[in-house]
UniProtKB/TrEMBL annotation:
<dbReference type="InterPro" id="IPR001638">
    <property type="entry name" value="Solute-binding_3/MltF_N"/>
</dbReference>
<feature type="domain" description="Ionotropic glutamate receptor C-terminal">
    <location>
        <begin position="44"/>
        <end position="264"/>
    </location>
</feature>
<keyword id="KW-0732">Signal</keyword>
<dbReference type="Pfam" id="PF00497">
    <property type="entry name" value="SBP_bac_3"/>
</dbReference>
<protein>
    <submittedName>
        <fullName>Amino acid ABC transporter substrate-binding protein</fullName>
    </submittedName>
</protein>
<dbReference type="GO" id="GO:0016020">
    <property type="term" value="C:membrane"/>
</dbReference>
<dbReference type="InterPro" id="IPR001320">
    <property type="entry name" value="Iontro_rcpt_C"/>
</dbReference>
<dbReference type="InterPro" id="IPR006311">
    <property type="entry name" value="TAT_signal"/>
</dbReference>
<feature type="signal peptide">
    <location>
        <begin position="1"/>
        <end position="29"/>
    </location>
</feature>
<feature type="domain" description="Solute-binding protein family 3/N-terminal">
    <location>
        <begin position="44"/>
        <end position="265"/>
    </location>
</feature>
<dbReference type="GO" id="GO:0015276">
    <property type="term" value="F:ligand-gated monoatomic ion channel activity"/>
</dbReference>
Length: 275
């Protein structure tokens, strides 16, 4: 987990006092003065995310957060005046992210969270920055189409876009909720469920980790683009994020990060620099 490091300076000597002055000046330069974005801590943007949602947001072998959403938000925060030391990430179950924003535990949530009308009743979303596909991952060779899911046990991530879609469209399938993808994949591998419904990019990652799994069904999901989530009633923060997102798309940063984290996947024209 990335944490804000704080340094304590001694003022017992003039050298210590000078160190304090320089440290304070550096901190002030790293963040905007005052609290223009109404953050929980004026010096830091706190971000709720996930630690197992590769390639969007995950913890690496050193426990540091990385992934497309993480790197994109760090760039957004930098454009808002916050360096990497003043952006903290905390991993949670997906279903806890929106309640945590609504309850003012974090300033922002970043984990490829799809924008839906139901979610917008409780929180606000930035402009979209990602669209994609929903996938059915399985080791059952008989599952090739949606109709093959009839009577099967399908894993879904609690509170996710996939869960909402499955509850609406897979009415003849037994849906099994999981708090995170790792536990769902474990259940799939040990036979507790027949398939797992998740994001296409994550499904691709899992087929590389477990060669017995295949991405059997892909469903377009263009009506709920991912956005950064903020609590309601904070237009200053939302506007600043949207401006930074726009600039990241216009100068090619978004495209660079997308190609890095989603090699071979089609680019979304509306997120590319506009001439």
């Amino acid at each position: 987990m990335t944490r804000l490091s704080r340094r304590v300076f001694s003022v017992a000597t003039l050298a210590g006092l000078a160190g304090l002055t320089l440290g304070a000046a550096a901190a002030q330069a790293a963040t905007p003065p005052g609290n223009p974005y109404h953050l929980i801590d004026p010096t830091t943007i706190s971000v709720g995310t996930m630690d197992d949602a590769k390639p969007y947001a995950f913890a690496d072998a050193n426990g540091d957060f990385t992934g497309f959403d993480i790197e994109l938000f760090r760039d957004v925060a930098r454009r808002m005046g916050f360096d990497a030391k003043h952006v903290t990430f905390t991993g949670q179950d997906f279903s806890a992210l929106i309640p945590s924003i609504a309850n003012n535990r974090f300033d922002v949530a970043a984990a490829a969270i799809g924008t839906t009308a139901a979610r917008k009743k409780f929180v606000d979303f930035s402009n979209g920055y990602l669209v994609g596909f929903l996938s059915v991952l399985t080791n059952d060779p008989s599952i090739k189409t949606v109709s093959d899911l009839t009577g099967k046990r399908l894993g879904i991530l609690q509170g996710s876009l996939e869960a909402l879609y499955a509850q609406k469209h897979f009415t003849k399938t037994s849906l099994v909720e999981f708090p995170d993808n790792n536990s769902a994949i474990a259940a799939l591998n040990n036979g507790t469920i027949d398939a797992h419904f998740l994001d296409y990019e994550q499904a691709k990652q899992e087929t590389q980790r477990f060669h017995g799994l295949k991405d059997a069904i892909n469903i377009p999901s263009f009506d709920a683009p991912a956005g950064f989530v903020v609590r309601k009633g904070n237009p200053a923060l939302l506007d600043a994020i949207n401006k930074a997102l726009h600039d990241a798309m216009q100068d090619g940063t978004w495209e660079k990060l997308y190609v890095k984290w989603f090699p071979g996947s089609p680019l979304t024209p509306q997120y590319l620099p506009q001439k």
